[in-house]
Structure formats: structure tokens, C-alpha cells
Amino acid sequence: MPPFQTKVAVVVRDDLESWQRLNVTAFVAGGITAAHPQLVGAPYADADGTRYLPLLGMPVLVFEATADQLRAARERALRRDLPIALYTSDMFRTGHDAANRAAVADVPGDALDVVGLAVHGPRNAVDKVVKGAHLHP
């Protein structure tokens, strides 16, 4: 199989609680999936015929970074015109999707307290976006 020409990367802030890291990862990976349905594979089925939902058809690399590194990753993704799925600290205090969007809309982009983001794009571009972050342990 040829190597993937694109890459999905999730970056979460290194000072989050474990449950927050998992929550943020799930939310922003869902954003990538929604924006790029062509990345979704076929449904699964086990030997008994039980069907399961399709998954992203490529690996998702999960990184951790400081707040400053996340801010820089957001800026690099924007400069490269890579769409960003993001999660801010304010979103932990909301209870539904509309409130999440309002929490982001209330803050200028360069002032967002980003705790996680995901990007999908050409491998080289994504590597440059996540530069400085390291793979999540």
C-alpha cells in the first residue's frame, strides 16, 4: 500500500486532565471527519455479521504541546490555509454545540485559549504546523 499523501494531526495542551485530553481529541477528530468525509472508510462487520460504523481510513497522530506551541500551531495552520478544528478552554463550561460556537465567536482569534486542535492536509504542511509538539505518550 502506498504511503498516505495527507496526514491528520491532533494537538492537545499538555496541562489538561486526562478526561479533557480524550474529550478534546474526540471533538476535533470529529471536526476533521465532518469536513473530509472522503477520509472515512467502509463499515466494519465481524465474522458473525454484526455491523459496525466506519472509521477514519487513515491514522490520526496525537501530539501534546504547551499553550504557546498550540497558539503557534494555530497560526501556522492559518498561514498555510489548512482548515482547523479547534477546542477552547471556554468550551469545557458549555453544555451544547450552539453554546460552544458562541464561546468561540465571543473571542478574537488571536485571543482564543486553544486547548486542542486538529488539522488535515499534505504531510509536509501538517508536519510544519505541529513543529515543536511531541507525540502524546
Automatic annotation (TrEMBL):
It comes from the Bacteria. InterPro entries: DUF2000, Pep_tRNA_hydro_II_dom_sf. Pfam families: DUF2000. SUPFAM superfamilies: Peptidyl-tRNA hydrolase II. This is DUF2000 domain-containing protein.
